[in-house]
Each structure stands twice: as C-alpha cells, then as structure tokens.
Design a protein that fits this description.
By secondary structure, the protein is mostly helical. It is about 70% helix and about 0% strand. It is built from 11 helices and no strands. It starts with a helix and ends in a 9-residue tail after the last helix.
Length: about 200
C-alpha cells in the first residue's frame, strides 16, 4: 500500500474508532469490532496501532493535528493569537476532546498510559511551541516579560479557565462559535496588555 493510501486508510480507521468509542466506551471497545466496522483485519490494526492504548494515542494525535500554531511574523499579532485561541478552544471543548478526556479520567486507575498520551500529544506538545512563539515576540520587541513570567501559561489560563473541566463534567455544553471567538479575542487582548503591547500589536 502506498504511503498516501496507507495514511488515508489509517485516518479512516481512526474516524471509525471515535464512533465506536463514543458508542461503547473504552472498556467495551474492541479491536475486533473496529476491524469489522473498518472492513480491515485485526492483524492490520495491531500492526499499525499496537492495541487499544496505541489506538487511543493515535486518536489524541489526530484530534490535535488540525491546529495551526500562531505565527510570530503575522502583522496583526493580537488577531493571530486570537485566531489560534479560537481554534484551540474549539478543539479542547469539542465532542472528541471531551470523549478522550472522559475516557482518560474513567480509566486512570487501570490504564494510566491514556492520561500520559493525552498530556504528551496535547498540552506537553503545544506549550513548548507556544513558549517559543512568545519568545520570538519578545525578541521582536512586541512584548516585554520578566524571566520568571510565562506568557504562554498566562494566556492559556485566560483562554480556557475552567471551561474544559466544566465541559468534560457536563456542566456546560459546547459554547457557540461567537462565544468562543469572543473569549479568545479577550484572552489575546488581555495577554498583550499584561505584557506591554506596543504599536506593533495594534496594527
């Protein structure tokens, strides 16, 4: 199978896995059921993913892959961070992220690797890149920070707050797109205000 065809097939299987996970839950989820739904063989699934935990890891990675990190070279830096924040918030509060978080929490006493995968492919993957993004902004003179300050952490706190945990526990539903954009715009504006936004951030 050509690499392009294999990747498309792999992503199709991951899509089917999301559907089964939502339907059956992680404990009842089986590779055999996924093989049947995907019209594939169990051998292929185990070869590609190495089992349920490996498949879960692939699902986490697939959910995060849609994010396009902000560019420090953008002319409108506030708008660029606001754009990324809205995308990130949509992913974090989306049905798939909620499903993955609930599975990791429910299985934490049995399958501790799931929480580790969630962190490694999620926060632990994105935060160093965001830190590098803000470091470039500081090099450009767009923001000014002290060594002890972490603008990436502060921005994320302003953006997400307790929305993700409230969403995962069912306390709130998925916010409307307009609400997500407004939340992100506010977080971006406050972050640049906190770290000394200059004229470059207002273009």
């Amino acid at each position: 199978m050509r690499s392009e065809s294999k990747e498309l097939r792999r992503r199709e299987i991951v899509e089917n896995a999301f559907a089964l996970l939502a339907q059956d839950g992680y404990a009842a989820f089986s590779m055999q059921a996924l093989a049947k739904l995907s019209r594939s063989s169990k051998e292929t699934l185990y070869g590609w993913f190495g089992g349920k935990a490996g498949l879960y890891e692939a699902m986490v990675a697939e959910n995060a892959a849609q994010l396009e990190l902000p560019s420090a070279e953008a002319e409108d830096v506030v708008g660029e961070l606001s754009r990324f924040g809205a995308d990130l918030l949509s992913v974090l509060l989306g049905e798939r992220a909620v499903l993955l978080n609930r599975v990791a929490a429910a299985e934490s006493g049995v399958e501790t690797a799931l929480g580790e995968f969630l962190a490694a492919k999620g926060r632990d993957h994105v935060m160093p890149k965001l830190a590098a993004y803000f470091a470039v902004l500081e090099e450009h003179g767009t923001i000014c920070t002290e060594a002890s300050e972490k603008p990436a952490e502060i921005w994320l706190s302003l953006l997400v707050g307790d929305l993700q945990i409230r969403r995962a526990t069912g306390a709130i539903g998925l916010p409307a797109e307009a609400e997500i954009r407004a939340q992100s715009a506010s977080a971006a504006a406050l972050t640049f205000r906190l770290f000394g936004a200059n004229e470059k951030t207002r273009r």
